Amino acid sequence: MKRFTKQETSWMFYDWANSAYSIIISTAVFPLFYKAAATEAGISAANSTAYLGYTIAIATFILAMLGPILGTIADYRGYKKKFFTFFFLVGVLSTALLAFIPSDQWLLLLICYTFTVIGSAGSNVFYDAFLVDVTSEKKMDTVSARGFGLGYIGSTIPFLLSIVIIILAQQGVLPLSATMASKIAFLITAAWWGLFTISLLKNVQQKYFIEPEKNPVINSFRRLGKTLRNIRQYRSVFLFLIAYFFYIDGVGTIITMSTAYGTDLGSSSTNLLVILFVTQVVAAPFAVLYGKLSDRFTGKKMLYVGIVVYIIVCIYAFFMKTTLDFWILAMLVATSQGGIQSLSRSYFAKIIPKEHSNEFFGFYNIFGKFASIMGPLLVGATAQITGHSNMGVFSLVILFVVGMVVLARVPEPTESTSPA
């Protein structure tokens, strides 16, 4: 008997596909490319970091507003795949478009980057919701964690290829400018993302749904309003979302702004790319390990472990001064980054009604995205006020602490706690 079905494997491989975007565009090459463009335009390091934070905040705000509405509509039979495909195409095409924007147009780069964020995060809303369709509740932790593990492994291939091209271009081995090498990395990302999504588009189908009805948009708003009015019926769901709101804020902020922060500390672009590559390699087995340990100690306890590690990360970041410090910080993040995200996804999938998975993952998205607005704004504003990025990172500690306290009040996902 195969350990994973074709549907489970196809679903997990979207992490493999989309993670190339996460590392190359969100975390590594694009932030460095943008920082260089902004610096050349005469913008200070603190201000360019702040503008990147504000851009992320705007993009996530747009998607946060759309998430529950689109998710509620997507619960109708056949709609989930359509919405997923739309956002996936927006993400892939805008990522490819980055390669054709002049490097001196830093503002235009940020505008295009906004669409890549919307496409990537939007497709993930419906991708996450597909988890209930492809596997059983018993296997959700394992499948979700394995997806993140595949994502880390898969992202290292296009990332390594991009790093090699960029470094060889910088050293004059390849007849390319550093700018052109970065643009090639953007095209590699779009191609990788598109190619390895084909399996999901072909093999994953919506299993849980509600039947289409007249005036689907109006009725979707009614169902959304009904869910909000009956919030007490889903107490464990929304209590978890409050906890998630706080702790995932810090996680997302550290992921999306790490390279900009490292640049402000004086780390070279080459060092940052190598550090991020090693981080991906280390994170893969730890993501799978979190899934296995959740079977023994429960997903909730492993979430506590991940939150504690991130608290240590924020405290250490406050005192960070050298590239060695950044290495240590990156390895700490690698141990828990995938685990805390994958187990949050599977924990939530276990406690929601499956027929309304898109609607509830829309709420999951809005809580996560609003948190992503607060974190970058906090880091950006603090960096500008104090002139020191580390103060903003340190302030994230309170978010992890509050998240852990609220999580303690959420019951373990069982048949009795899952809404019917």
Order of helices and strands: HHHHHHHHHHHHHHHHH
* Principal-axis shape: globular
CATH class: Mainly Alpha
Summed up, the helix count is 17
CATH topology: Growth Hormone, Chain: A
Radius of gyration equals: 20 Å
Residue stretches low in confidence (pLDDT < 50, at least 5 long) are: 415-420
Write the CATH architecture name.
Up-down Bundle
What is the overall pLDDT average? 83
Strand runs, count: 0
Q: Sheet bearing the most strands, described? A: none
The number of domains: 1
Backbone structural class? mainly alpha
User: What is the strand content?
Assistant: under 5%
Helix content: over 70%
Q: Calculate the terminal CA-CA distance, rounded to whole Å.
A: 31 Å
Instruction: Name the CATH superfamily assignment.
Output: MFS general substrate transporter like domains
Domain Major facilitator superfamily (MFS) profile: 236-420
Keywords: Membrane, Transmembrane, Transmembrane helix, Transport
GO molecular function, one term: transmembrane transporter activity
Transmembrane segments: 12-34, 54-76, 83-101, 107-127, 148-169, 181-201, 237-260, 272-290, 302-320, 326-348, 360-379, 391-410
